[in-house]
Design goal:
The protein is an alpha+beta fold. The protein has helices at residues 10-19, 252-259, 262-273, 313-321, 338-354, 360-370, 393-410, 412-425, 433-444, 449-456, 464-469, 484-494; strands spanning 47-59, 64-75, 82-85, 89-95, 98-99, 101-105, 109-113, 123-132, 145-148, 151-154, 175-184, 188-190, 194-201, 204-215, 222-225, 227-233, 239-245, 281-285, 293-294, 301-302, 330-331, 430-431. The strands form six sheets. An eight-stranded mixed beta sheet has the order 5-4-8-2-1-11-14-13, with no helix packed on it. The chain is globular and about 70 Å long.
């Protein structure tokens, strides 16, 4: 690559020099991982994505997916090459409109080498053309693409994007989305955000969805099948879209009786956590054999098994609380899972209190008493549970217990001010457990490191004296709150 040096006096020279592209000698490869402590190969370094435009075509009968992804990003260093996380077959890659060399490495790395290095601080665009059968693609020993009798679903945590679009797959790199999907007439395509338009041509219907607020890759979802769809608006005018597979069988009624209360639940949660952070809401229940639920942004995914015992508003409360805790305020590192799950679980305790099925204090006392000191439950540290225990009961129950201990220690006024202030100050960003401790100390004016060490970072049951200090009852047999079992069922539904 050859440069012509321009000699221009003063500030003009500095501006022109800034525009000179990076030289091959100065540029280096972006890291093949973003630096996560649990998942070192997830995400990538060297750039930041601002927008994904996904134009897809999916045939439910064969599970064939064809796509063109246009990715708008900014270079964070002079890049000689960079990676995307992806597992389907790629036919062509263009960077800045020019064909780029590419190769697959590992089971989910797409390594791209542009014809010329990318300059730090400057935007660039990547186009990836691809195709494949997602359900047949195995990466890291599994597939996150779920087949249904009439289509397919992308919903999993901590990864699901690899099976349907190339991405920088880590919550640290959030972006906005346009998802356009063509499916055979009579079939629907559901995604996040608002439905901007539909059009039909030659036997295919195209659905165009838009997510206008920053969104993590694992929170981006796609559901193709034959759904019964209900639409409404909230009192504030937000569109509500819910979808149910037509073949849910005995679970259909309970699913509707639960998910259709989403707007009501969001209105209540807004009084506790602050204004709802997005421009749409809802949920969907496809006919899948899985047991988990997932807080996919604006439109949570629910497995039919979540409603096998009847209506389950507690599950809806949990997933919608994640819209604040996990979706709007996302974790920095997967070890920070407590900033997602501890708060969503505590939302269920608050809902139980509101519904007269057991106060948060009663649930905390029962949680503490229910697990003997030698139970493995206490070995898991919610503040850093390890990848093998990310969705352990302790992250949920002990995680909520830590928040009740905080509430008792600092009082309701400061506690609820912290919940609202935290979601406001970190809206659309990322935060860690440490960040929350620092914020809670700032608002309450109290040192809280010892409290959080006790309840989040100690691999043993806190002693009775510590429980009393947190105003928890160390009694051996408190009365079990009415909501307890339903909340436990929800945690098992939420596991992967």
């Amino acid at each position: 690559m050859r440069h012509h040096r321009l000699l221009v006096p003063g500030a003009a020279a500095a501006c022109l020099l800034l525009a000179i592209p990076a030289s091959a000698a100065d540029a280096t490869p972006g890291a093949p991982g973003i630096g996560d402590s649990y998942y070192p190969s997830y995400g990538n370094g060297g750039y930041d994505v601002s927008h994904y435009d996904l134009r897809l075509k999916y045939q439910p009968k064969t599970d064939r997916l064809e796509g063109t992804a246009t990715i708008v990003a900014d270079a964070r260093q002079d890049l000689s090459r960079f990676n995307l996380d992806f597992a389907l077959d790629v036919s062509e890659v263009l960077v800045g409109g020019k064909k780029a060399a590419f190769t697959k490495t590992g089971d989910h790395e797409l390594e791209i080498t542009p014809v010329a290095p990318l300059t730090s601080g400057r935007p660039f665009t990547v186009v990836v053309r691809y195709s494949g059968t997602p359900s047949k693609v195995v990466a890291s020993g599994f597939t996150s693409w779920l087949r249904t009798p009439d289509g397919g679903i992308a919903a999993n945590e901590p990864e699901s994007a690899w099976w349907w679009f190339p991405s920088n797959d880590h919550p640290l790199d959030k972006a906005t989305y346009d998802v356009s999907v063509a499916v055979p007439d009579g079939t629907q395509a559901i995604s996040n955000g608002t439905l901007r338009s539909t059009s039909s041509q030659l036997g295919w219907t195209r659905y165009n969805w838009r997510s206008g607020k920053p969104q993590a890759t694992y929170l981006t979802t796609l559901a193709v099948g034959k759904f019964d769809i209900t639409t409404d608006t909230t009192a504030n005018g937000l569109p509500v879209i819910n979808a149910y597979s037509k073949d849910l069988g005995d679970n259909a009624g309970a699913a509707r009786a639960s998910v259709e209360r989403s707007a009501e639940i969001v209105d209540w949660e807004s009084t506790v956590f602050g204004p709802y952070p997005f421009d749409a809401l809802g949920g969907y229940v496809p006919n899948v054999p899985t047991g988990y639920a997932l807080e996919t942004q604006t439109r949570p995914f629910y497995s039919p098994k979540g409603f096998a015992k009847g209506a389950n508003t507690s599950l809806i409360v949990h997933e919608l609380a994640h819209q604040w805790f996990g979706d709007s305020v996302s974790l920095k590192d997967w070890r920070d899972i407590w900033v997602n799950e501890g708060f969503a679980s505590y939302a269920q305790w608050l809902w139980s209190e509101k519904e007269g099925e057991g106060t948060a204090q009663e649930l905390a006392d029962y949680t503490y008493a229910s697990y003997p000191a030698d139970d493995p439950f206490w070995k898991v540290e919610p503040g850093n549970p390890g990848p093998e225990n990310q969705f352990h009961d302790a992250v949920y129950d002990r995680g909520a217990l830590a928040l009740q201990a905080l509430r008792n220690h600092i009082g309701d006024k400061d506690f609820f001010a912290i919940l609202k202030g935290w979601t406001t100050e970190n809206r659309y960003g990322n935060a860690s457990v440490k960040d929350f401790v620092t914020y809670a100390e700032k608002v309450s004016g109290k040192p809280l490191a010892t409290l959080f060490d006790t309840w989040l970072f100690t691999p043993s049951k806190p002693a009775a004296t510590q429980a009393r200090a947190a105003e928890l009852s160390p009694a051996k047999a408190p009365v079990r709150p009415k909501s307890w079992q339903r909340i436990q069922d929800t945690h098992r539904t939420h596991g992967r």
